[in-house]
Structures are given as structure tokens and as C-alpha cells.
Amino acid sequence: MKAESPVVKTTCAYCGVGCGVNMQMQDHGFIATGDRHHPANHGRLCVKGSALGETLDLQGRLLQPEINHQPVSWHQALDAVAQGLQAVISEHGPQAVAFYGSGQLLTEDYYVANKLMKGFIGAGNMDTNSRLCMASAVVGYKRAFGADAVPCNYQDLTLADCVILTGSNTAWAHPVVYQRLVKAKTERPEMRIIVIDPRNTATCDIADLHLALRPGSDAGLFSGALNAMAECGKLDAEFLRQHTQGAEETLLAAKAWTLDATADFCGLSVSQLQSFYQMLANSPRLVTLYSMGINQSSSGVDKCNAIINLHLATGQIGREGCGPFSITGQPNAMGGREVGGLANQLACHMGFTPAEIDRVGRFWQSTTVAQSAGLNAIDLFRAIESGEIKAVWIMGTNPLVSLPDADRVRAGLARCPLVIVSDIMRETDTTRAAHILLPAQGWGEKNGTVTNSERCISRQRAFLPTPGEAKPDWWILSQVAQRLGYADAFAWQHPAEIFREHAALSGFENAGQRAFDISGLAQLSNQQWDALQPIQWPVNAASPQGTPRLFTDKTFFHADGKARLVAITPGLPANQPTAAYPLLMNSGRVRDQWHTMTRTGKSVRLMQHISEPYCQFHPDDAPGVTRGDLVRISSAYGWLLLRAQPDNLQPRGSIFVPIHWSSRFSQQARVDALIAPLTDPLSGQPESKHMPVKLLQWKAAWHAELFIRGDGIMLPATAYWSLITQPGVTHFTLADSSLPDDWMAWLNEHYSTDGKICQVARMGDDGFNLLVWEQGELQLAFYARRKPLLPDRQAVLSAFMQAPDTAQQRLALLAGIAGSDKPPTGAMICSCFAVGETQIVEAVRQGCSSAQQLGAKLKCGTNCGSCIPELKKIIAGHMATLTTGEHQ
């Protein structure tokens, strides 16, 4: 009998939920399952986590160091990095150097990068893409509590009487947390869930109340809630008196937010607000879960503090089922915050006061510690553009896609004398701009720790051999540091040594004065570190088993031990619609994709749910534009070309676009190229949710789908294209503004059909279909029409794996259909079990009237549960059709 492969317990590579994952080799590769013993997920995984094993291939990997895109040895590459940095420092000083990291780095990687830049090069210019997702939450917590300290844990979500979800499409962005809420509400129907979001998202499926407020008005809403709680006697006067400061000023400022004033400002009805306030007043235990919709704002810090004010004033903190809970977007955004990965932090949550600089310098035994905060992400790349920064090292992120005003960032980076990029992929928007490329280990090959949104430190364990010449990020950085002359301080041989140093620094001269303290883990042996179980910080002599919940003793981290309420003056964002740009663009995630699709774009099933970049808008905002048309979205900074998705659930005057598509996957869909570089003055976080744009239909002369056997196929020379990952086949959707004179001639310019058997179907000016065969195997399939079309993709892909047997089947394939005996699956709804819309609709017609019944029949919705809101929508649509038919 074949021995069963060992299970490796690791942590998911995606969102800040930090799910435990079991990876095990089976017959066809590694399979990911949820770790039942991990406190973050108790065995549940979302579809992205379940598909982790499908993202581990080496296609497109950077496997050897390169200088000017030519392979070199590690010795040559490391020497070139060190010599380049040293030359810049010698001529222009340390402030001319910058590092830009990522929440994809492990804590040990982050620590080494931060120590090298701030401790030995001597500049504060170490920032991270976490600046783009949770910097406002950091500042909000520090203003209120005196420390960047998330007080809650996931269990609090299930213990609360009321959970507010604001600025978060939790069902899609943090599905495992959402499913916890679904389960809790099923078990405790009296629990109230409030969703605050201009859009009607999948998260609204479990909402008792959805407040579709005016975009950007969140701070006014929470100020109104604070005033309402004061008026109805729901404030905790004793807590405010003994454990806070600033209450009097804050409550006085909130008095302006009367019921009518708040309703008018937020674009809500008085009755909606009254329902909101009543739910709050009737809930002894309240959790507010907030994410990018709050943080990504030019007033994000004030929005965070408006939420925290409400919790402090009502005493809803430091107790089970209570607290303001910022949930992060990346797997190790919290770890980056802990080591000092943001430019305004020094290390271990310490800042740049003289005492802290002295303390860190003594610990690191360095006399060159940075004396002041560095440049945050937006300013850092502006300094590259202006020539102030001469050398930048970018690690594990793709800022030419993710930063605001991305085209300007691209142009600025092109002028930088030295661009170093550490990455796992050879071809990204950012690696193309690099002078030196360094191959880093990817998820599955890396060994270290990460911290999730509830302060839980987990091990990320390697289960794959390191491919090619890839190396750990901490090793790469240490080797450069040694070449710069800092060998003694960067002499680690194992990541556990780095972790121990980081843990020791967290407790160095701490004595309970700093929130972040994991000194209880500073003596772990390598073996103990390797076996480390998930644990929430602080972990020290006072709490050796970790700390699930903060502030239970009502003591905070300001010098006087009291929390601060912050009086704020809410206002709407400055960048309001104009006659030229009359719509507001909101950006965000989709269910099955992650960041710029470097990893999820490899998975066939993750590309099936939403295959192309799109624009969702209310039909009345673009009359005459139908689903599948192409639209041009433009702002004062750039433009996009996207599929139209009119939807009555999208509020009038606004549009939604996903953030994920880079130039690797689509011709013109980099959303951040449209975003203005407006930032919160306190956090430096960009306003990514509120951009004035205009929408125009883009008149395509033709639309097509092109399938070609193999990969590495040349990109089409068309105005619009998107790449959809398929097994063994390159699949493009195409469109252009001019019709070719001869379809065969046009195709042969790009993809030669010489010597191959061609089946052609010409439909005059209306369309052209082509199948190309060689030695009995399908090589190319092409379907073009004047209007958007959707051939049966599954039938076409099946033909590449096994050619049709009969002439009739080949004719059906030429027409883009599978044949009468094989109905199409339709648009993918359940990615976990590959259940398409057509199958679901048919099951509904046969009598399935609930998501549970569909799950029993088709299995859809029975794994991660992310598709359940869509199943309900299909059922509701069918029922509405029946009702309409009855009344006709």
C-alpha cells in the first residue's frame, strides 16, 4: 500500500483572516484543506484558499538573478546591489535610498529589511503596500489607545448582540469571517447585523439593516450615532470619567449631528437612521468590523476615530463581543506593522522620539539609526520621480498597478537610476522597470511567521523545494547588508534567529509600556519555533499563553493609562463629481481574485467566476449600454476599457470596478491609473474609493474569443483584450474598433495557419468562425461577431483535450456549441464545485427553492459558502419571473 504523504500545517497566502491550511501531496499535486485546529478558521477555507494547490506551478517564475534582464550569478547580483546602493549613499546620502515592501513578506523578511534601512543605512524610507490598505486604522488606534492595538478577536464577532460591517464586502473579501457570522446568526437569530455600504453587495444577504449611505459620509453617520446614544442615555458615564479623556469636546462636537442633519448628510431616510440607532441602543455588546471602505479615504483616520469614539463612549470595548475591529487586507500586514514596516515607525511599534531612537540603537548596536520618519508610499514614489531618491528596492509587490496615478508612477520609476526588484514572477508591470531582478521564494517555499487581523501569530511552513536559484527574502537582504559592511548585525543562519531577535526587541525596556510585546517567545529554540502554535500577542511574563482580548482592565497605552475620544469634523471628500466627470468610481475586490492576480491568475477555476475586468453601474447612468458591451471609464488621470455590467443594485451616480487586472491580464484595466494621489494628512493613505469619472460606451466593430493551444502566446494587437487562464490553452477575449478586410489574413498576421487544416464558417459582415487542426488535434478556435458573444467555452476547451469524434460534433464546435446532448454550464457561480448558472437555473426550474436545496442537488454553496448570495439571487430572479408571468 502506498504510504500517505505527510501533512504540512501552514497559513494561507491571501487575506488578513490568516486561516490555517493543511497542505498534502496527493496523486495530482498538493491539495489544500482547512486546519480544524487553527483558531482563525476551524477548518473552513474560502475558494481562494481551497485552490492554493493550483497556483504552485513554475510557469512565469523568476528563477535566476538578472541584471538588465540578462541572467547572472547570485554573487554578481548581490555585488551589484550592494555597490549600487553604496554608490548612491556615498554621493547623495542615505535619504536617497528607499525600500518598498509588501504584506506578502514574512515577519522575518520584514524585520531584516526594516533593520537594514532604518538601523544601518540610516534613513526612514522603508514603507510598504500596507500603506494603501490599513495605515488609517493604525493612526486611528494610536490616537485613541496610544498604540496600534486591535482590541478584538474573531470570537467576539460571534458573541456580539450586534455586528456592524462598514466599508467591507466581507462576503467576498474575507469569506471565512463572513461564514462565521452566517453561522452565528443562524444559531442566534436575535443577533443583529448592519451593513453600511453605498453598494448592495453579497454581504447584505445576511443584513437586518442595509444603510446605503452617500459615499464618503461614514464619519458623519458615526458622529450621529454617538449623539443619538448620548440623547437616549446609552453612554457609559463611569467609563468615560475614569478611563478616557476628550469626551466632553467630542460629545459637544457630535451634538451638531442631529437626526435630520445626519440623514441629510448621509443621504439616508430618517426612518433608516432611527432603525440604526434603535439597534445600537438595544445591543449591550457591539462589534464594528471595518476595512478598506473606511481606511482608503482622504479622511480615513477621522472615520476610524468616529467608530472608536462610539465604542469608547458606550463602554463597548475590553469585553466579550465588543470592540472596534479593523480587519486587514493582506496575510502579513499586521506583521509589517509590528516590525516597523511603515515609514513612520521605527521598530516593534516604536516611533522616532529621541528615547525610542536611542533604545533601538542600543539594542541593534548601531550609531546610524534613522533620526526621523521616512517618506510614505505616495511621497516616496514622488521623490523617485523628482530625483530625490536615486535607488529603490521593491519587494514582493507591484506598485505600477496598485499605486494611485499609476501611469505617473511608471514614468517616474523609469527615470530612477537604480531599481531593484525581488519577486517570484519574471513578468510584472514592475519587474519590467527593474535594473536588477532577484528571485525570491514564493508561498509554499518560505519559512517564517505571519500575524493576522486578530493579532494571532502563525507559522508559515515550507512544503515545497525551492525552485531554481530562488532565495528567502531575509537571506537576500542579509547578504547585501554583509556586503555593505554590517556583517555582525546580519549574520543569521536561520529565520528562527531573526524571530528571536525581533521578540527580544519587543520586550527590551518595555515593562508593559508598549502594547506589542512577544518577549515570551524570545527564548524559543529552533525546534520550538518550528512547532509554534498560533498565539495572540502580547505574549510575555504577564500573559505567557497569549492575550485574546485587549483592554479588559480598562488601561490603555497613553502615558496616563486613559483612552482618547477625538473630536472630529466630518466632511465629504474634496474630489466630488463635476460636469466633466459626473460619476463616482469605487474600487474593490472580487470574490475569487487577489491583488494583481500574480497567484490567483494561475488557477483555472478562480478565473471562471469573473473572467474579465468589468464596470458595474446603474442602468439609468448609461442608457443604451447593455451587459457585455465595452465601456470607456476615464478620469483626469487615465482611462480604462471594461465590460459593461449594468445592475439595479448599484446606486445611481456611482460605478464599481475591480482592482485586480494588470497589464499581464488585460490591455487597459489598471484601475489605479485613474485614482488621484489624494491622501489622508495623518496616515498618508490614498483616497481609492471616491474618484470622479465619466462613462462612455466604446463602439467596437467586432468582438471575439480566441483559443490557442499552449502558453506564451503573443498578445493580440487589438484595442481590447483580456487573458483568461485555461488548462493547456491560451484564451483571449478580444474587441477592436475596425473590422478586418480579411479575417484569415488578419489571423495569419498573428497566428500562422500554414500547413494546417482549417474549418471556416463565414457569416458575411456579421461574423467569422475558424477551427485549425493539426494531426487530428485542435490548435486554434476563433469566434468573431459584431456583437458580444459567448461560445460554450467548456465545449471548446474539451475539444483541445479530446478532439470530437464525428463530423457533426466538429460542426457543432465550429458553431461554438457542444451539441444537443451536452448543455452548456453557463457563467460559473460556484467555483468550488464548478457549478454554472445554467445548471443552477435548471435545478431551480425543477423545484429547488432555497440555497440549501441547490446544495443538496448540485453541491454548490456547500464548501466555502461564498456563492450563496448569488444562488439566492438566481432563485429570487426565477421567482420574480414566475410572479410576473402570473400577472400578465
User: Which stretches of 5+ consecutive residues score pLDDT under 50?
Assistant: none
The amount of helix comes to 25-40%
H/I helix tally: 28
Distance between the termini: 65 Å
Would you tell me the overall average pLDDT?
A: 94
Bin the strand percentage: 15-25%
How many strands? 34
Strand order of the largest sheet: 5-4-16-15-14-6-7
Largest sheet: 7 strands, mixed
The coarse overall form would be: globular
Regarding quaternary structure, what we see is: single chain
Q: Calculate Rg over CA atoms.
A: 27 Å
Please give the structural blueprint.
Blueprint lengths: L6 E5 L8 E7 L2 E6 L12 H4 L15 E2 L2 E2 L2 H19 L4 E5 L5 H15 L4 E3 L6 H11 L8 H6 L2 E5 L3 H4 L1 H13 L4 E5 L12 E3 L6 H14 L5 H7 E2 L1 H8 L4 H8 L3 H12 L4 E5 L1 H4 L4 H14 L9 E4 L6 H7 L14 H11 L12 H10 L4 E5 L3 H4 L3 H9 L3 E6 L12 E4 L8 E4 L4 E5 L12 H11 L11 H13 L18 H5 L4 E2 L26 E2 L18 E6 L25 E4 L12 E5 L4 E8 L7 E5 L32 E8 L3 E8 L10 E7 L2 E8 L6 H8 L6 E6 L4 E8 L2 E9 L7 H9 L5 H8 L13 E3 L4 E2 H9 L5 H8 L9 H20 L1
Helix pairs in contact: 2-20, 3-15, 3-20, 3-21, 4-14, 8-11, 8-14, 17-19, 26-28
